[in-house]
Each structure stands twice: as C-alpha cells, then as structure tokens.
Design goal:
656 residues; single chain; 19 helices; 21% strand
C-alpha cells in the first residue's frame, strides 16, 4: 500500500469486530437508498455493480437498444469456482478435460494458449494459482463462430478489452473447441489482479457486460446484422417452442397490471408480436383479454426454457442413435426425471456419453433400455461416474437422499452413550456385531466429515454425534445427489453380441439363472437381448452347462462359478506370461500381501492385480482401491470378499 492510499474500516471508532462493520455498511446502504428516493425492490442497492467493471457494465446497459439489437449474438456462460479444499484438484481436472481428445476441427486434443503464446503450460498456470481463493471460468460462443477459421485473435482482443474494463492485467489461459455445432472458447482467469489482490468482478459485468463486449468485437469482424437478417431470424422465432428474444421483449412490455398491448407499433413488429402471442396462446401460456391486450403466464420464461431444453435433448437422442445406425421411434424416447413418478432403475446398453453442461462439467448417458425405450439420463459430474464405453451394459439407479440403516445405527448407539461413537463402543453395545461390520460405520462417518463437516472426530478416534445427526445425514445425501444424481453400475463391459459365445460368466448368464430376471420388451434392445439369450442357451447346452427338460431349460447349479473360473484361469495364464510370475489363487483364510499394480476388466467383473516378488493374485475390485494404486496392500480373504488393512486411519481400517 502506498502513502496516498488508505483502506477504511467500517464501524464505530475503536471497534475491531466484523459484525459492527457489516451493520454499519447496511446502514450506509439504507441511507443511500433513502437519499435517492429509492423504494424497496429493484431500485435498491443490491451490489450488482460492486467490483471491477461496474461502470463499464452500466455504460453498456444504457446503450440504444436498437443498436445493440443489430449486433451479432454471443452467448457467454460464467462460473466462479472456489479453490479451497478439493477445488484445486477440480481445477486440474477441469484443465485436463478442456484439453481432451477430439475437440479441434481435426479431432485432435485441445491446445491451451494465452495472451502471448499459442502453447501454454497448464501445470505452470495451476501452480501460479496455488494460493488463489477462486478462479473464473468462461465459455464464449458467437452465434456466427463458424465464420472464424481461428478463434484465438478474437479471444485475445476480448481479454484485452476486459482488462481495460476491469482496470487490471489478467492472468488467463484459453482453449478453443470445435466439437459441437457451435465453435466456442473456454477461458480460465485467475482470481487475482495484477497487484496480487483478490479479483472481484461486478455482477453486472459478468451477467451482461462481457457478452456485450464480445458482441461488439464479432460485429466489427463480420459487420452488423442487416434488417433482412434480423427480420428473418425473428420470423423463425415466432413459432419456436423455447424462450426467444420476442418473449423477452413481451415481458418488458407488460404494464403495471401485467398485461401486454401490441397496438401503436410499426406493422412488422405488431405482426411479429401478434404471431408470437397466438403461438403462446396455443401453448396455453398467453390469454387475450381484450382487443390487442394479452395476459402472459407468470411462469412463461421458466416453462419455455424447460420445453426448449427438452427439445434439445430429443435432438441429442436422435443424433446419437443415428450415429450408431440404430432405428428407434421418437415415441420411445424417454427423458428420465427421477424427481417424478419414475423411480425404476434403467437397465440397458450405453449408446453414448456426452456433456450436457460444459461450464459445470455435467454429463449425460443415452441408454438403449431392455424395456424397449431409449433413455436420456443426467449423471452429474463427469468424475463421479467411472468410464462407460459404448456398448457396455449398465444399471442406472437414482441416488437416495434418505439416511441409511448404517446412519440410524450410529445415531442409536451414540444416543445411548452420551453422543459418542467409536469401534469399541459399537462392539460393546452390540455383542453380535463383528469388527468388520463396525468399520463400515466408521467409514460412513469419515465420508460425511470430509464433505460437510457434519460430524466431529476427536484425536482418540471417538466421534461426537449430534442429536440431529439424521438431519445432517440427509443434508449430506442431498449434496451428493446434486453432484451425483444417479448410481451407474457397470453390469458387463462386453457388448451383448459378444456374450453369446463367450467362454466366461456373462450378464446374460446371470439373467438366465436369476430368480427375478429383468423384464424384456419385444422391441428395440429388449428384442436383441431376447435373441441373444436364445442363442446363449444353445451354447450352454453344447457346453454341458444346461440341458433341455421337456419345455424348459435346466442349468447346472454351479454354472456361473464354472464359467467365472474358466475366464479367471485364462486371464491369469495370460498375465503370468506377461509378468513372468506364478499365479496364486486366493482362497478363504489366505493372507494377501503385495503391491496393487492395476485392474483388469473381466466379463464377470473387475479384478485387482496384487503382485509380490514371487507371484501375483487376482481379487475382486473395490472402487476405494483406486487411490492406493502402486502401493503396498495387505488383506484377509474370506467367502464375503477381501478385508483390507490399507489406508489405515486413526479410527480404524480405511477399506474392507
């Protein structure tokens, strides 16, 4: 800080508390509102201009609306991301995502660039941001972006203009994506200004100022839209079933009684508004209440946006199915909404996986279901779900938000012991409980503590459980559901056609011997599964694993274990040749010690390769093993699985 700068502290003289400052700041805002004669509501101080870029946003907002209307349209999406805690890991993952394969015109990985270089080191950028409180993520997509051979010059000019508006140099990187119908640029800006202070950008500049600046630049490059272009686009909007610029104008035209009048306007606009209002009337979103006067539905914008999103999803379903050469009726498309009456799991073949929201990294799955329908499923954050290759068989289940039985057990035990819980207390309280069973409760508490801090662990490993523990658990589950709305279980990595003659235990086999097989519809993927099952039965009969008994098929009691052992032995032999080690089969009661080398996908499931100096072992995979790859592990094999003693916490084992 220089000699001619000072930083005022709000509050009474001598007061050091932040609460007093906040109260005084509220009084100042109230006084400003009163002095300006502002009423409560939209006219009051809301802080939208606080931060850098506020004056520029105000200037841009006050421009002639008709001049702005002629500008080329640009969509700007913004997200402010906190970097504290796991945010730094998320920033690295986001940068890797931006540079993934297939985003350039040539299908190559994305290339980071900056203000002065076409090739920027992403790791160096993340390292510089190590102590930052937050970062800004922007997606800039010009409606006419396809006209640009290279988006880099446009992005650099936009960032230079942004620096001028904000009055500071910015540290940023960007990458251009051409993998959608609308070329767009991802820009990441550090949350620090040139002096190393936290960068605060006015909300008004984020919400509208940057978009206006980008539109100015595109209009300079391509020229303003002509009257003919504007009128043609507006005519197209008149019949669209989505929220349009005409709807935005109609909402602005409402009077104090919430009604819209179309009289007294030029012939083109009067025709435009009348045509749109008639369309809204057919959609039951507008009602004519007099000659040239209309009442708009209170939920007009929200309803039209939902309809538009659904239309985009239907287009996505059609495009993905067409790309795979699958013919499905649009009547069988299902945009699954887990919040409604549909709660049944979806079982089927993965057709495609993609991004529904790039700025928030939300993914979708298109699943060709055994029920004959094609489902569009929001699966949340990309890293929350393991890779699901096209053709694999999955079961997608909505994530519950209610406390589990393990939570109720913890609450009951803690209530009986003064709000305290640990392994010893659990085992004394319930003499029938095993240590392994009690450890699952400790892991549950640790997971809740990491995400919400809703429970407290003392240095000796004892947990303090609040009386409202179950309410806190519900909050934790709701937070998880926002990030991971579903659970995706991979039932088989093998496409159904490869399972017919596969020498191993397949998903088809498990369905054939199941007491409650999934109901198959005689259409779409359901019909394909029916045909595959019929051919698989003949293969099993030829292998001596099943036989016909009058009008039914009888399967050997140990058929699944025989097939699983065949594949396991075959894969173990291949790995033995590759590793130069002897394969040791894990038996119940064996102690397993070695290095977790990798995982292998078998038709019967995923397995971990545990290697020591003389031999290796294959054991069933657990997702928690991922964080221990390359580390020494040990565990005890039982009929129920492997009880691991890796990742040991102060409160007990970390994985079992």
């Amino acid at each position: 800080m220089t000699d001619d700068e000072f930083r005022p502290k709000l509050g009474k003289i001598g007061s050091r508390g932040s609460k007093a400052g906040k109260r005084f700041a509220s009084q100042v805002r109230a006084a400003v509102n009163r002095a300006g004669g502002r009423s409560q509501g939209a006219g009051c101080f809301a802080g939208s201009r606080v931060g850098r870029g506020g004056p520029a946003a105000t200037l841009l907002k006050s421009r002639d609306r008709h001049a702005a209307f002629r500008q080329r349209r640009v969509v700007v999406k913004v997200r402010v991301v906190k970097l504290a805690g796991k945010g730094a890991d998320g920033a690295r993952a986001h940068l890797r995502y931006l540079q993934r394969d297939g985003v350039t015109r040539e299908g190559e990985p994305g290339e980071l660039y900056g203000a002065d270089s076409d090739h920027v080191d992403g790791k160096a950028f993340i390292d510089r941001a190590g102590g930052d409180r937050h970062q800004f993520r922007f997606i800039v997509a010009a409606e006419d972006g396809i006209e640009y051979d290279d988006l880099k010059p446009l992005t650099r000019r936009l960032m230079t203009q942004m620096e001028e508006d904000l009055g500071t140099k910015l540290d940023w990187v960007a990458v251009d994506h051409f993998n959608t119908g609308h070329p767009h640029t991802h820009i990441i800006v550090r949350g620090k200004d040139e002096r190393g202070e936290n960068l605060v950008i006015a909300r008004e500049y984020i919400s509208s100022g940057l978009r206006e600046r980008a539109a100015e630049l595109v209009s300079l490059d391509l020229g303003p839209r002509t009257d003919r272009e504007i009128e043609q686009r507006l005519r197209q909007e008149m019949e669209q079933e989505r929220f349009t610029s005409i709807d935005r104008q109609l909402l602005r035209m409402r009077d104090e009684y919430g009604k819209v009048s179309t009289d007294g306007r030029d012939a083109f606009r009067q025709t435009l508004y009348q045509g749109r209002l008639r369309k809204l009337e057919r959609m039951e979103l507008a009602e004519e209440v007099g000659s040239g006067r209309w009442r708009l539905d209170d939920e007009l914008e929200a309803t039209l946006r939902r309809i538009g999103e659904r239309g985009d999803i239907i287009k996505t379903l059609h495009r993905e199915l067409a790309a795979k050469g699958l013919a499905r009726s649009a009547a069988d498309y299902n945009v699954r909404d887990w919040s409604g009456a549909e709660t049944e799991p979806v079982v089927g073949r993965v057709v495609a996986r993609g991004l529904s929201d790039e700025i928030n990294d939300r993914h979708y799955l298109v699943v060709d279901g055994v029920d004959g329908r094609t489902h569009y499923l929001d699966i949340g954050k990309g890293e929350a779900t393991e890779p699901t290759p096209d053709g694999c068989i999955v079961r997608v289940t909505p994530r519950g938000t209610e406390p589990r039985q393990v939570d109720r057990t913890i609450a009951d035990i803690a209530a009986a012991h003064g709000g305290r819980y640990n392994l010893d207390i659990h085992l004394k309280h319930d003499a029938s409980a095993t240590a392994r069973y009690a450890e699952t409760h400790v892991r549950r508490l640790e997971a809740i503590r990491r995400v919400t801090g809703g429970v407290e662990r003392q240095p000796d490993g004892t947990w303090i459980i609040a009386p409202d523990h179950l309410h806190r658990v519900s909050d934790y589950e709701r937070q998880r559901a926002r990030v991971e709305p579903v659970v995706v279980d991979k039932l088989s990595s093998l496409p159904v056609e490869r399972q017919v003659n596969f020498d191993g235990a397949t998903w088809i086999d498990r369905e054939l011997v199941s007491d409650a097989p999934k109901s198959l519809r005689n259409s779409g993927f359901g019909r394909e599964v029916q045909e595959a099952q019929a051919r698989r039965r003949q293969w099993l009969i030829a292998q001596g694993l099943a036989q016909e008994d009058q009008d039914r098929i009888v399967y050997r009691a140990n058929m699944i274990s025989i097939l699983r052992q065949r594949e396991l032995s075959r894969v173990a032999g291949q790995l033995s040749d590759e590793l130069g080690l002897h394969y040791a089969e894990a038996q119940p009661g064996d102690r397993i010690v070695g290095t977790l080398r990798r995982s292998v996908d078998l038709a019967s499931g995923k397995y971990a390769v545990i290697e020591n100096s003389r031999e290796f072992t294959l054991v069933p995979w657990r997702p928690l093993l991922e964080q221990h790859m390359g580390k020494e592990v040990s565990g005890m094999a039982s009929w129920e699985g492997i009880s691991w003693t890796i990742g040991r916490q102060r409160s007990g084992p970390g994985v079992s």
